[in-house]
Amino acid sequence: MADAGGIPEIACDESGSDGENLTGGNTDVFAHASVLLSAESAAGHVQEIRNRIRSPAEEYKANHLLREKHRAVLEWLLSVSGPLYGHAHVHLVEKSFFVVDRAADLLLGDPEAAVPLFRHGRRTFTEAEWKHFLEAANQLLWVRHEGEPDTPVEHFFRTLEELRQRYPGTAAAETLSRLAAERSRALAYRAGIQDGPFVLTPVLNPLLPSILHTAAHWSAGGRPVRLAHDRQNMLTPERIAWIEGAARVRGIRLAGLRLVVSRLDARVQLADFLAGIARRIASDELNGRGDPALTALLRPYTGAAAVWGDERSWARLGPATESGGRSAQLNSPV
């Protein structure tokens, strides 16, 4: 649980990573889970899960626990009497809101504009129009784009103009007008993408800011922490150095981040279970098919810093005093 210097090490893993493809990927929620347990106790809990499920699989994943026949094991794992309660945390990201949040921050320098745009836009536009807007914003911000650098800019601003003309005088159109006035910022972003910081820290990848949120959660109160994260292609040495530097700038007491192999670290396996479980439960709640019992069991683990725009689902998923709509500003380059 702690190194020789007494600094606790938090084990982390994620679920729902589609890179920067947030509108056309396989999942609509990203979850970053973290666990603070000793290696010995974590190994014991993983073995107990295996004993309860009795699957011949060499490596267990969240899907094992999410099967209906193992419902009792899942409820035990998340319950007050389970091994994770009080020792784990989940940072949730609603991907469609993350796209709006990032676009508002990049073009307006005002992430707070994301909340009204997200909520008014969904209520004002048709489902197809809203999806088209999100896809255009995703393409604008996506670092990897084949073809002329201005193409995503033209597509995005053409989409803005079409929606402004269809819905004049609406609250959504007011924010769209603000965005439409920032074509120069969009062009500068696309033109400078290869030479700027965004290749190192892609605006649309939720992993890096989620790691910073996780470190901020566990170091609250000023205690330093280390992170042990499952190996991930995104976490290159350069990006790990960026995370550690960004944490210092923001006053987050992150003493270091190292990569480990999940199957060799029971703590990370538990974080993997929790991330996959949280993503599924949160996605079900987001899409109106939530299981009230499971949502209630997840709620003690979800952090108030979640990047979430949907009010209805967040009222069930998040801390009781929070209203949702958090910013992703921790992704901003140093």
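[next item in queue]
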Amino acid sequence: MQKESISILGCGWLGLPLAVSLIKEGYSVKGSTTSEGKLDLLREAGIEPFLVTLDPEIDGEEFCDFLQSDILVVNIPPSRREDIVEFHIQQISSLIDALGQSPVRSVLFVSSTSVYPMLNREVTEEDAVDPESPSGQALLHVEEMLMQETGFQTTVLRFGGLTGYDRSPENYLSRMQEMTAPDQPMNLIHRDDCVNIILEIIRLQQWGEIFNACSPIHPLKRDFYARAAETAGIPLPPAVSVSEPSPFKLVSSRKLESALSYTFTHSGS
């Protein structure tokens, strides 16, 4: 049986290795980039490449061809700009309009745990109310827009604390002058788990869902970076002393673990 065709909007740090993994599993993959210089990189990886920008309207002469797939993975974070909420809403509105003229019937939207405020407790998928950051506000708005559409089914996947490869704690330590909130528990997920979880959602046809995706292990920031400093053989930056406990959230991924029968490959350390 022929597997579905998949388009990935945003073949960057996560989208590119995801595309490579999907191709290995027998899927045909189209991928977009905003950089003309990356088109050959995508092509060499076996991805059908497309040059696409959302500024906020779609700019890409072949965007209709890009959307000739069964499944679309949307992997474009909100742009860092003053009108971040309005701009991201306009971007996704343009995308929704284009999807209405396409054969895509399943959308996987890569979101973030920034949709949760610091509630000083465990948070589940139902706790996304009044995000504190503009990025979280933008993501929650567009999540709701996509979930309300009836022409296709959307699954929202909220990642938190992306790590792995060039996003290693050692790299962050080299730029860190001091450690704030050292006793704050961390929400982390390795890129390998991000890719594997998306593969499982597609394989199991888990559409119309909202999932958190973070390792069930939540190390304290001071412990996480102390281990990284010891491994790298570099000094640990001094911790900033605070009089009040740092606000936190513990992101629960139990719903995802149950629905996918998924066990995280990498712990939160």
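[queue empty]
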